[in-house]
């Protein structure tokens, strides 16, 4: 069983390192291998899309997968879930994004439209959309999982198209305003995420950064946040070199830097998971050091272990991340 920072039991099944700990730290051979593969560009693969592989900066994720078994993770048993509840696709014209966006609403087993439920907003990675947000399963299947032998408490999930702008405002495209001003009201009209602190946010890669950013910007709205392999850069120059479209300007990076504004999470419980072999791992460590001591009044739940920025790690971390959110959403 993993341990949260501060010693509270978590939901994972493998040992965890605390910030600054050395066990499992990438070896010199691995670092050299990453250098040969183009680590400066940051490979972003799996459910998050093939951001830099598509840009031709990296030859492919196989080079990463072969380094000392760095990407090997135990696959979760995704067959142990109840009969999934229904899920529905829809679209709406977003004034904030100035385009029509798609979304999916999924319900837990035994529930459907009209039921009043807590809500998880799930944010997709770079190159993804509302249909590819969850790695390895559908949103409805994710809500039907059994974690540590127990079914998840009932909650709904919504996914939505956020574009490729890293869930932060760009000229003519503001996914943050879309989430808070359009998507959440749409869901609340359906009795989802109503009441005090009944909304959680989950994301992978770009979406992991986005989940933390939403919680930082709207701590009065978000009850808990879970970030899997969050794409954390520590400078605008670093971000621009890897993805010129991630931020519109240096000023925008400063305004939406998850590390700089981590203190805003003082009242929001957070879970963060990252693999030792993930190119974003150093940035995640910087973020962790900036977190408030006890966000939301409890220690942050942190998972660091074997794994890379790839689908297997994402999928393995979804069940404990959902259990973490469920605990905070259903006991609020």
UniProtKB/TrEMBL annotation:
Keywords: Membrane, Transmembrane, Transmembrane helix. It holds the Pfam family Esterase. Residues 1-29 are annotated as: Disordered. This is Acyl-CoA:diacylglycerol acyltransferase. It comes from Trebonia kvetii. PANTHER family: DIACYLGLYCEROL ACYLTRANSFERASE_MYCOLYLTRANSFERASE AG85A (PTHR48098:SF1), ENTEROCHELIN ESTERASE-RELATED (PTHR48098). The chain crosses the membrane at residues 31-53. GO terms for molecular function: acyltransferase activity, transferring groups other than amino-acyl groups. The keyword Transmembrane helix applies.
């Amino acid at each position: 069983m993993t341990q949260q920072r501060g010693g509270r039991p978590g939901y994972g099944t493998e040992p965890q390192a605390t910030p600054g700990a050395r066990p499992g730290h990438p070896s010199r051979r691995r670092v050299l291998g990453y250098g040969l593969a183009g680590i400066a560009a940051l490979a972003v693969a799996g459910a998050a899309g093939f951001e830099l592989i598509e840009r031709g900066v990296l030859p492919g994720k196989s080079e990463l997968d072969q380094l000392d078994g760095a990407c090997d993770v135990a696959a979760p048993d995704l067959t142990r879930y109840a009969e999934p509840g229904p899920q529905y696709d829809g679209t709406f014209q977003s004034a904030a994004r100035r385009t029509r966006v798609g979304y999916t609403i999924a319900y837990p087993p035994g529930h459907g439209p009209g039921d009043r439920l807590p809500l998880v907003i799930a944010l997709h990675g770079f190159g993804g959309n509302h249909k590819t947000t969850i790695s390895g399963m559908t949103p409805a299947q994710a809500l039907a999982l059994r974690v540590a032998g127990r079914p998840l408490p009932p909650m709904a999930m919504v996914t939505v198209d956020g574009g490729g702008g890293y869930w932060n405002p760009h000229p003519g495209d503001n996914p943050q305003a879309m989430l808070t001003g359009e998507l959440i009201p749409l869901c609340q009209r359906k009795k989802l995420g109503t009441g005090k602190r009944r909304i959680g946010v989950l994301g992978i890669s770009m979406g992991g950064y986005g989940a933390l950013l939403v919680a930082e910007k709207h701590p009065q709205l978000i009850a808990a946040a879970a970030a899997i392999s969050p794409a954390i850069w520590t400078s605008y120059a670093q971000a621009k070199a890897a993805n010129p479209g991630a931020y519109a300007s240096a000023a925008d990076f400063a305004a939406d830097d998850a590390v700089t504004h981590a203190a805003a999470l003082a009242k929001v419980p957070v879970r963060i998971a990252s693999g030792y072999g993930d190119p974003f791992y150093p940035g995640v460590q910087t973020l962790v050091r900036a977190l408030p001591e006890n966000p939301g009044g409890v220690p942050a739940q942190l998972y660091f272990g074997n794994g890379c920025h790839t689908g297997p790690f994402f999928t393995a971390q979804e069940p404990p991340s959902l259990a973490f959110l469920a605990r905070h959403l259903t006991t609020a």
